Amino acid sequence: MAPGADLLNKVLNDGGAGAASWIGVAPAFWGDSEHVGLAGSFGDIGSMQLSRDGEMIGESPYPFGVFDVPSEEAEYEWAPPTTKFGQPAAVWKRSTETRTVWKFRSELDESAYSQGVPLLFPGYQLPGDGRKTLPAQDGQEIALSVSGHAGCTPGTLTAAKLSYS
Fold first, then answer.
1. How far is CA 1 from CA 4, 8, 9, 55, 61, in A?
2. How confident is the model at residue 1 (pLDDT cuts 50, 70, 90)?
3. DSSP string, the chain
């Protein structure tokens, strides 16, 4: 059964009675005007873990899902590791795995029908050569940025870490 299917059945069968609040996440990523990334598709595998105040409250065998959560304010952590495999991975010689962790606070707003999860999406700019390659040399500058989704405007970026190998 797909992640969140039990919640969908609850809504269809009893109007969602007993469900305090739901959090659902299904991101897609655009890096330029030509490429899109949907985690868990086209040679990707992944999963998802959702924690509330440091305690694992849900898992999905896919890098997306819907979870029944308490309505009280809490700190959440969403971690969707992804990996490319097979023929599609042959194109990505250097980056075949990702592990991104999002942390955010959330609570039920009784006056809102739906609320966006306050996730920020990292972005970076490389001094590329038109073929999306970059020579290995000292002194390369990588510009970091963040964007929010609809309804979530990011504040000023005050700190960031970038790791690579």
1. 8, 11, 11, 24, 10
2. very low
3. --TTHHHHHHHHHHTTTT--EEEEE--EEE-SSS-EEETTSSSEEE-EEEEETTEEEEEESSS-EEEEE-SS-EEEEEE--EEE-HHHHHH-SS--EE---EEEEE---TT-S------EEEEEE----SSS-----TT---EEEEEE-TT--------------
Contact present, 48 and 40 (Cβ < 8 Å): no
How far apart CA 147 and CA 133 sit, in angstroms, is: 24
Chain centroid offset of residue 30 CA: 13
Tell me the C-alpha distance between 3 and 131, whole Å.
38
User: Distances from the Cα of 64 to the Cαs of 21, 129, 135, in angstroms?
Assistant: 17, 34, 35
| Minimum mean pLDDT range among 82-96, 115-129, 143-157 | 82-96
Beta bridge partners of 60: 48
CB 62 within 8 A of CB 50: no
